[in-house]
Design brief:
There is one protein chain. The chain is mainly α. The chain has 4 helices and no strands. It has one domain. GO terms for molecular function: nucleic acid binding. InterPro entries: RNaseH_sf.
């Protein structure tokens, strides 16, 4: 997700500092609820992987 958001930025990162700033800005803009939802779904996703024996979980 973070990679896609940084790639979408209109200003291309010309150097390491520009990339660092872009990453920081995008990281800060990720909604807290999205992060919390990912954390909350971790156990369910791990259980699905175990049930699928590392196969497809869909």
């Amino acid at each position: 997700m973070l990679r896609r958001r940084v790639k979408k930025r209109l200003i291309m990162q010309d150097n390491f500092n520009d990339l660092r700033v872009g990453l920081s800005e995008e990281w800060e803009s990720i909604p807290q609820q999205f992060i919390q939802d990912l954390i909350s779904s971790t156990l369910r996703r791990i259980e699905a992987i175990i049930r699928a024996r590392s196969g497809n979980t869909q």
